[in-house]
Structures are given as structure tokens and as C-alpha cells.
Structure prediction request, 269 residues.
Amino acid sequence: MTTLRDNLWLWGQSPGSHHTPSHYHLPGVNRMTPAEGCAFFGTSNCCRVAMSAGPFPPFDEESRQLTHLKKVIWSILGAGGIASHNAGGFGDLEEVIRQAKQFPNIIGGVLDDFFSETRRKVYPPENIAEVRRRLIQGAGRPMELWVVWYEREIQVDISKYLPSFDAVTFWTWYGQNLAELPANLDRMIATTPEKRRYAGCYLWDYGNAKPLSDDMMLYQLETYRKYIRSGKLNGIILCSNCCADLGLSTVELTQKWLQAHADEEIPQR
Prediction:
């Protein structure tokens, strides 16, 4: 039996990294770690992603904190604002390979904020194909390569990149664009045949630096649940521990929703 919880992930980032810089206007002080975030939401899967506030290689201690989890994906390219990690090679590829050799629950890498015009210019499709080859060869075992795709880039032709990716994570950056969620999901699904697909799920309207309404939060979750049950999506990635301890109503709503639905069996197709 497979449940929604089995395919629930946390987008894990260093505590305080969504407050630095402060342009997202999040309230309070964030101290929750990715490991604590996984326990908070009841998931054993984590995408551990670097931002400008860190973490910085080596990642050994961060990986050790997640050894109790079932699956971990490390960022090979972290958030779009990162420059310091990307000098002298391809992002943190070699460090992720080194982590995978030490920690068996690390199953792959993810390219965050990837389909921006800037990153596509720097990293052409043949470059990403080489990253996939090096990741698998370097780890000496099967490894997955994931990518982040935003609704704001839904018009971008990603077809030449797709052969290199095992999974596409699709995110709605601007809260008002959740009104177009089914249409955007349908387009993403039609564009990514034979790929696994995960819905990135924000608990704050980061694009507009303001709270996400409870109504829109519930609409988002219920839409993802519908698509998972129909076999069109494989799971949900919650973002993130960096806002889970700030007293947001969307966090409380999400926890209640998970209590009601996370252990439902997903129909096998």
C-alpha cells in the first residue's frame, strides 16, 4: 500500500534562511531545522537545499542530521541567488557525490530555480546531461536528478533538458497564480511525459512577500490531492521548515489537512 505520506517531502533549508535577506517579510524568528521540520509534518523524505545563508560545503553534519530519513535529495544547484557555491565546476555536484558515498539514504540531487533565463544560458542541455552522468558514475549506484520549474516560466521550452531529469517539481511562486493552478498543472503534465512529478507547495506567498490566505492554501492542497489520486502527480513537497514555527495559520491548516489525508491509500495505476 502506498499513501500520500509516503510521497510527502519537505523542502528543507537552514533555519533563518528565509529571513536573510528580509525581503520575504516573514514574521517572527525561525529556529526549526530540516530534521525537525520533517518530524513536524510527519514525513521521512527531504530535499535539502542550499541558500545564500548556507549550508556551505562540507555537508557532512547536515547529512548526519538526516540519516533517520528514508530519502534525501541534496541540491546540486541551490537557490538562484547563490554565486559562491558555483565557482570552479558545477555547483555542489562533487560534494553531493561525496555525501552519497557516505550516506545511503541520499538518492539524488536537485537543481533549484533552474529554468530562469540566467541559468539556462550558463547551463545548456548538454551540460546537464553531463551532470547526470557524473552524478551516477561518481556515486557508483543509481542516483536521481530532479529540477525545479515555476509557473512563471511555464512558457519556457524545456524539452531539450527533460531527458536528463527523473523528476520535475512544479511550484507556484506568485500566490494569485494559484487561481490558474489546474491549467498550469495540466500544461506541465502534458509537457513531461514519463517523468515523475511533484507539486511544490508554499505556505507563504513568497512572490508577493505576504501571507497566503487559508482559502488558497486549502485549495492548493486539495488540488494536489486530486491530481495525486488520479495518478497525474506523484507527491507534494512542503516549503518549509523555515516558516513552520512562525505561527502562520497556513501551517496549522496544513497540519490538520495532513492528519485527515496523509495516510489515505493512493490508488495504484
